[in-house]
Amino acid sequence: MTKNILLTSMLLFATLASNAQSFDIDLSHQPQGEPFRYSVSVPDGNYRVSVTIGSKRQAAETCVRAESRRLFFEPQQTKKGETKTLTFVVNKRSPYIYTEGSIAKRQSPKDSIRIKERERYYVNWDDSLTLEFCGRHPAVSRLQIERDSTATTLYLCGNSTVVDQEFEPWASWGQMITRWFDAEVSVANYAESGLTATTFLAQKRFDKVLSMLRKGDYVICEFGHNDQKERFEGAGAYYNFAYSLKRLIDGARKKGATVVFCTPTQRRSFDEQKRFIKETHGDYPQAMREVARREGVPVIELHEMTRTFFETLGFNGSREALVHYPANTFPGQVKELADNTHFNPYGAYEVAKMVVQGMKTLHLSLADHVRADFNGFDPAEPDGPSSFVWPSSGLFELKKPDGN
């Protein structure tokens, strides 16, 4: 494992008492032009963030992310003397499961998620809300953070194709979709690499979701990649998998939330002629569709959209959407990276646009809060890799995420 931490030019930290509602900090006197992070210790929940970018002294370019590389604003250009205020909502979480109202009362949690050992060091799971400002010349003059109780929360349940990947060069659509919502929607991503619908439930990740879930929220589930490899008694697409999906539906609906399914993203597995994607998921996509049909759950067809996406890019071009890099591309990388399942930032960004387009096609109320600069997405006419700018976080890991 290689973790090369470059984003250390400035690390700011503040503590917000659990009974405080907001704070306002002046960053205009801090050094400008270098990537930095700002962390504040806060309880679990949603936080409305307003950040003023730009500098009186020089032109700037600022990219805004939060927690484990969640994208909120792509690099924003500001002229010398120009400022912009960007507002968005970030979900902060911990592994602890609280009873209703216990956070406000400072009561102890009743339980916790069974997170994996490596997750213990992820920014997503610590006790702070962390904001990241990067780009060619980032400049931030003011930061406001306040507790938010009005935003609709979109909870994500899934595996490595959904999770907030902690390290470069890996990425997933769950940490990119945050970029497309206005300040009335918060995304809470509980997915993790290697999980199945069964293990997602067993690790109490859904218990945590249910403890926070409110009427009017959304729950999106994407499973199937790892589920097909389960071999225990009762496993199977139309048996345990379908049963676990039903449990997710019933739990969310009991809390008044809307459930949406995403069929699993394709693997980059071309046929011998290198023209068409082979089906590698067995009965699992169809099992999701059938459960959805019986239960009246809307479905976003990532399975078919990513098939079109890969075939449009072609056998060689599709490598540019996944973690395919020659040796020595990243620090300590002595061997080629060739992963046909996990996306890089560009690929994850494109898949996130597929999910947003799926929401709009289904006329979900959540789609009313998609930012105005979303111009629709057709996987048969994807953006070119060079059109997407992703400043590196400086955090690298060469070990492949769990799952395939």
Secondary structure layout:
Elements lengths: L10 E5 L6 E5 L9 E6 L3 E10 L5 E7 L3 E9 L4 E10 L3 E2 L13 E2 L15 E10 L2 E9 L3 E6 L27 E5 L7 H6 L2 H8 L5 E4 L15 H18 L3 E5 L21 H12 L3 E2 L1 H16 L4 E4 L11 E7 L1 H17 L43
Parallel strand pairs: 1-3, 12-13, 12-14, 14-15, 15-16
Antiparallel strand pairs: 2-11, 3-10, 4-7, 4-11, 5-6, 5-10, 8-9, 17-18
Helix pairs in contact: 3-4
Structure write-up:
This protein is α/β, with parallel strands linked by helices and 404 residues long. The chain has six helices and 18 strands. It has helices at 197-202, 205-212, 237-254, 284-295, 302-317, 345-361; strands spanning 11-15, 22-26, 36-41, 45-54, 60-66, 70-78, 83-92, 96-97, 111-112, 128-137, 140-148, 152-157, 185-189, 218-221, 258-262, 299-300, 322-325, 337-343. The strands form five sheets. It has a five-stranded mixed β-sheet, with no helix packed on it. Strand 14, helix 3 (237-254) and strand 15 form a beta-alpha-beta unit. Helix 3 (237-254) crosses helix 4. The two termini are 18 Å apart. Residues 1-11 have low confidence and may be disordered.
Give a quick set of tags describing it.
6 helices; globular; alpha/beta; disordered N terminus; five-stranded mixed β-sheet; 404 residues; five-stranded parallel β-sheet
